[in-house]
Structures are given as C-alpha cells and as structure tokens.
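Sample pair:
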Amino acid sequence: LIDQIVKRFGTNKIFLIVRKFWHRRFRKHLDLEPPQESVLCAFGEVQDNVLDQAGLTAFLDWAGQHPAFNQQACQTALSKPGSLKEVESLSEAVAAIAHSLLNPPALKTTVADAQLRSTLRREVNTIPSGRKCLGGAPAIIADVLAQLGLQRVHIFSMYHSDAIARLYRGQPQRLDLNSNPPQLVCVNHPGEYLIGGTSYSHPTRNSDIFICKKGYKVSIGNQTFAAKQDDRIIFRVYKYIEDHSRQWGQVKIRMLQNGALTPWLQGPKVDPDEWPAPRGFVRWRVNNGVLELEFLDETPIRQTFNYDYIILNAPGLAPFRRTDPLEHREVQSLLQQLEWISEGPTKIHLEISGGADPRKDRIQPFAQSMKGLIHSVGINDGELLQLTALPDYDPPLAITAGASAIYQRYERALRLAQELDIERLYVHGNDVDLILRKGGSSGEMRTEIQADLFAKGIVVLAVLQRSVHDWHGYLQADYAIAVARDMIKRAWEELDNLSQQGNLSRKEREQRGQTLSEAQDAFEEAENEFRNEHFDEAERKAKEAQGIIEREFGIPAEPSSKATLSLSPILLARSFKNLFWFAYDYVRFTLGKNAPHSASGLTKEGEEIFQRIVETGYYATRDPKGYSVAVVPVMWPELPIEVNPTGAGDICSGVTAVYSGF
C-alpha cells in the first residue's frame, strides 16, 4: 500500500499531510475552553497501590516464605496460563507474575478469593516502596474534568473512604445519596456512618500494580523467568474491604421491580471483611447490626439526576448471565433507574470494561436491555474484539477477508454500534482511536477529533500527576537533566577531538578533564535527587552542571529531545500507517471506488476521497441513520515505566465524550 501511495502522491505530499495537517492540529487543540455542561461520574473509586521493582521483589520474597505458598501448585498454575486471569491462591498469584514476565503485555489479574484479598491487603500495605494514587475510571474522569475548570462535576460512589478522599487533586463534589434529600459534599471529606454515637469510615477498594523492568528475573524451582520488556502487572480487586464484624453481620436489600421498591430481601452473603456494592444508585445505613441497602426509586431519581452527561462504568456483560439471581435483579434495578433518567435530556455514556467470556457471555441480553438507555459507549480495542467474537450476532458478524486489521476493527465497531443502536461509539487503542457518530456531520466529526486530540494531551498530565507528587517539578527537573546530559556529552567529544589534534597540552587536558568530572559529579547528584523525587534539588544540581560546562567550554544550554518524558506531540509511524490503510480500505470496500488496473488501485474519485480522509481524519456519511467515522492517530510520548498510565484510555473516552458535545 505505502509503495502505491508514494508512487501516486509522492513522498513530499505524504510528509505534508502528516506535518502540515496533523502536527499543527495537535498543537492547536491543546487549549480548549471548558464546556459549561454538568457531569456526573459513577460508580467506581479505587485506591491503586503502585509498587516499584524493589516492592515487587519484597512481595515475592514474602510470598515465597508464606505457609500458603506451594511451589508445585505454582508450577501447575503456570502450565494453565488461561486460568491466570483470575487467581484464588498465593501460588496462583506468583504464577501470574512469572507468566507476565515472559508473555507481555502483563496480565490484569482479578483476585477472586476473599482470603487471598485479605492476605494481599495486609502485606502490600507494609511494603514501603509503594505509591498510592486515585484509580477507577469514573473517579479519575471527575477529578480531571474538575481540574480543567468544569464548574459542575460530581462523583457518586456508594463508599467514599478516608484513603480515597485524600487522593483527589481537583474539586469535584461528591453526591451523597445517604442524606435525605441527597446532598453535595466536598470530595476531600470522607464518608462516615454512625453506630451508637461512634463514627466509622467507609471501606476502601484497592488494586495493586507491580512495576518491573526488562530483564527482571524470578526463579520458581529450577525455572527462571526474565521480563522481556518494561511492564506493569495488575492485581484487580473488585471488593470493598474493611473489617465489619463488630458493626454488622447481616445484609438486607430493597430493589426495584415493575417500577416500585420490593420488600426487604436477604442481601448477598459476604465475608467478614467485605462490603457489598451493587452497581446502581443506592443509599445505605447500618441499623441494629444489619447493613441495609436500598435502590433509589422514581421520585428521588427524577429530582436528583438532572445532569447533561452521566458517565458510567457499569453494567458490563457479566450481570446478564443470570447465573446469580440476586445479581440479575440488581442489574434490572439499575436498568429501571437508567430508564427514568433517559426519559429526560441527559446523555448517558457507558465505559464497557471487563471484556467478554465466550463460554459465559452473549451480546443479545446486554444489547436488548441497554437499547434506548445509553447514548454513547467507550471501549478499548481488545475488549471490542472480545465482544464482537460472541456467537449470537444475528446475522453473524461479517469481516472482509484481505482487509487491513484497522479496517476490520472498524467493521467490528460498526456492528457493535448498530447492535446497541447508540448515537456514538469511541474505541480507544494504542495506535488510533475510532469514533463512530450516527449521522455525524462534518462539523461534528471535526469537533470529535478536536476533543480527542485535546484529551490525549490532558491524559499525559493526568497520569503523570497520579504517578509523582509534583508533576511540574518532575518535568522541569527531567528536562534540566536531559540538557545537562547533552552538554556533558558534547564537552567530552570536544575534549577528545582537541586532544587527538594535539591542540591541548597535557596540563590543559587534565584541567579540563577535572572540570568535566565536577560537572559529571553534579549531574550524577541530580539524577540521584530525581530518583528520590527531590525535584527542586535535582533541577538545581542539573543546572549547576550546565553552568560548569557553559563557563569552561562555551557550550550553551540548548533544547533537548532526550528528556525521559517529552510533552511534545509524538507522531507515531504506526498510527499514520493505520490511518492510510483505513482510508484506502474504506474507499475500496465501503464506498466501492476501487480500480484494480490504476496505479493506486482506486478510481479518480476514490483517490480524492482517500486524500480527504487522511487529511481530515474522518468521513461523514449522508445517511442520517448511518455512522460517520473518525480515525484519530494516537500521539503519545514514550513514558518511563514509573509513570502509571493505567486507565488512560478510559480517561480519554470520558473527557472526549464531554468535550465533543454529542
């Protein structure tokens, strides 16, 4: 394809498309005005515990000596890697880590056993090298939108612990449904409940993220597992954990049926340190040793949920399996609440997470239940593949043989959008984002691209903010170190050249070498301060090294492209390659403008449409019931492994939904 395009359009034309249209477009859209609309984000808040490689080593040393660890069981688990997506023992957890080292990208493993969850929580909290940051897509999206200047951004989560409350940087307000009527409170104030005049904090949900660098080794028996790349191994926990044995011992729940609340029912059975958290707009209290959960009925729903946008991360496909009658009734209660909300002007955006299991899940129960209730969906490209591989599409999903992978991804996205009958679908990937908009005009598609490019710039700062306590200081120190590194390298090269040419006496060389060693010492101190997150001191030492080089060698401090993290737009070759492939196949297969005997393989009209797609990034349909499509190249810097990008796609999805104005 690239050869055909070069022959027909020339390399200068291709360079112009990338440089003139896309590079400039990215810079232009980094400063959008905040929308005036109101936003509610629900349901998840998570405390992510991020542990560096030293923390991973400490965890594995502890696990290897724990009585619950069994080396043979670990090796057995390694022989069944498909089962490691969910772990129920410490042996399986270690196996998941070892498997991830050899088989990147690392697993995002669910911790499915209560005892293991409790064991991990106690141990991980004792590891000193961990960093705690805000997790959960709705929470992060609310935090980011508030920091961008949106005036009415609210977050709802059943539980809001002290640990979570401390992690917010922005000032979204928390919607407290336990008050009557519901109230808005400061997000930095933890939720509390009273028993006999004593106040208790809400429980916390945690996930653990272990960082390892390429070459990191783990030995199990006579096997050694070495990491093939820098990576992050994630242990997901979907439970809220806090000892409640002295507060309550029974759960009761009132759900919705036929538009009305049911009588009190026996709630889910839980372990002594777990709190039930049904997905829905639920109020709760502890009453005479009973935890009482109650879905909001029609009146408070209609009075409270008058937002322009509601961003949800539930339900996924799992609750529609009907294997758990109580869980099925819970999701039906949420659907009833969404039906009441959707009757107003609110636009509901659902971020689908958790993927799909072809052995258990089907698309039809989910699609039929969600039709008319949600307007926009976000999903990553891997989960899109899982959802569109389910066997109950009717007629079956048709994928064009011989088409490029990106065009086949588009076909899957189009079918999912049609199946759900939604206004908008956002598919986030590592190469390009696909945005489908029903009847989207040219202006609407341009706005979608603007919003997505803006979100990409914002999300880099968001993940950096989550990973270091002073992201501004991080960037300044990182850049000063990169400039100093370049200057020292140039100085050594200059000294070697002058010595080889005989232009320096032995004494002069020794003096300059001594000066360079002083600069090198200051530079190494800067790197050490940076590793310890003393960013002000790191920047000062780096500039000290720069000053020595500039005074003694006359080498000026010049901009460097070698900082660990650069916020300049990174135009990824694979992203634009996929944009070209998509445009080419869309013109051929969707529009039928192919001409096999022409130089490009397209008709004259097809060539014009192809060029317009790669320049603008979209094709707008004229069919009001059809879907326009935008293909947005991902412009993403190389992030150091210490910067945790977990949830970056979800953040982009939520921010783009609001800024697109759909």
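Residues 471-553 form one domain.
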